[in-house]
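Q: Could you fold this chain for me?
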Amino acid sequence: IYLSNPNGMSLEQAELAIRDGIMDSLPPDKMGMVFTAAKRDALKAGAGSTDFSGLFIAFSFFVILAAAILVALSFRLATERRSAQVGLLMAIGFTRRDVGRVFLGEGAIVAGLGAILGLPTGVGYAWLMLTGLRTWWSNAVNAPFLTLHVTPMSLTIGFVGGFFVAMFSVWIALRGMMTKSPRGLLAGALRDDASGQAGKQRGARLTFVLSLLIGIGATIAALGSDSVPRVPAFFAAGGGLLLAGLAAMALWLGRATGGEAISAGAGAMMRLGMRNAKRQRSRSVMTTSLIACATFVVVAVGANRHQAGEDAHKKGGGTGGFVLIAKSSTALPFDLNSAAGGEQLGISVDTAGTLDKATTMSLRRMRGDDSSCLNLYQVKRPEILGVSKEWIGRGGFAFAQSAAESDAELDNPWALLNRTYDDGAVPAIGDMNTLMWLLKLGIGDDMTIVDERGQDAKLRIVGMLSGSILQSQLIVAEDRFVEMFPSTSGYGVVLIGGAGNDADGLSNEDIKALSDGLENDLSSYGFDAEPTLDVLNRYRAIENTYMSAFQALGGLGLAIGTIGLAAVMLRNVVERRSELALLRALGYSPRMLGTMVLAENAALLVIGLGIGTISALIAAGPNIVSTGALVAWGSLFATLAIVAIVGLLSGVLAVNAAVRAPLVTALRSE
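A: Sure. Below is the predicted structure, expressed as structure tokens.
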């Protein structure tokens, strides 16, 4: 550019004036220069996308629930054992409030001591969880630097939370006894009267109907509508059927028993034992519900494992029908999908011959933060890919949910990328795991990014992929990509599949030859190719690790529930020792009494395991029938078998207590 100097300025003055004029007319934001607070953004990202305190609570939910129910059950059993004392205090003039204060005071002392002892135990539990995340479950966090950090505030919150959970359990246990009359308590009548039973029956019947409707409605919605996410809908259906099953059990326990139970053979004692489960309905419902809920978690989580197999190469699978995914450090200036582009890039003859058997899709790429489940940090600017019209027309991948409305969009949700919005929002598609857990976005939500000119651009989520290899990117149409980033030329991501819609036509030798040949021929571009199955399994390993953690802690909750069942059985035997002694005096053998007690324990255990297992299998239905399901049926049912054996062994302890009770001493109170 030649410039004249009509004002007679010196060369230095003219140079300074021209430079200042150019800088005034070309501000940094118009030149693509954007100023950011690097330290602030780094600290914000360092806070992480995963709240480990919430994660630990989620992991330990059923352990906490099981412990709370066990506390309530233990205190209720201890309180009911002192029912005569409660009745006597009320009979001599103590009000129900006074008696409640006495027992709540005792509970506060026990809960306070337990909370104090729980502080170091909780710190040890947190240390064990972190050790697990660094070792056994390291794939879940991909961060070996996790360390235990204890503060006075966290200890205070833990103490107060544990204390109030225990006190709430104590209050629940005490509330039922305070409704009894002094005469009934002195006589040991702890069962609900007819009106109380009728009220519980109505509540159980209403719960059964509503839960069943929820389960059936969620199933119909999941099967009949493509816009409803199938996995959450089936979990809702399984949860509804779980509650319906427990309500049905409560209804059965509340029904009046009729008909003869005594006949020749062991079957009579088993029927009599199952009838005895109805005597203390609240205890039976509480313990069975705990076992059913913990079983639901163990089975549902175990049945939701995934592993990419050869069927994942299908067009509708997690790989979209592609066998290789490649990224280049420097964008490829030509499209590999054309012979001319391959020639311009210097592809060798052998590699080009193998490439002719395949279909290649080149995608534009704007680098950004890793937004896959491999990243623990907050994502400020996700990587963005621009896909061609050929990609949109081809379709592929499995969609968890979309904003599709027309028939064309329902048939091929990728067509949603062609939508236009009055507010200028750009349609975008991403993987469900990335959108939900890292970006905290759903269908119809907007994410604001800064384009090349420094202007804000809105990306509107119109589709969610299900378990795909594209977890780390948001995808937009190529023309919209060029509008936002006009100077980003070339192609940064390449996907290679078979000549058809799936991976058909490419042998393992062809895939290996393509990977090695392209990496060698395009080494100057930093070209790195990787099998899509490896990428998919790397992502799914993280999901499976979280599943293992949930399953292990759910199993711990199930073990606590089994302990609660054992406590109930032992308490029932103690309460009925005079009855059992009378049966022995009438000629019933210890073996017959043992069969009766064991049948009661086995009935509650089997009902809980059955309700939880069936509901969980319904909840995990989409995964069980999907491609890539990795359900370890052997280990899963082995876990349930161990729980059943442990539960039956607890029944054996109750049997021993029943048959060894002193006959004369027990009969004196009859």
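A (continued): The two ends are 115 Å apart (CA to CA).
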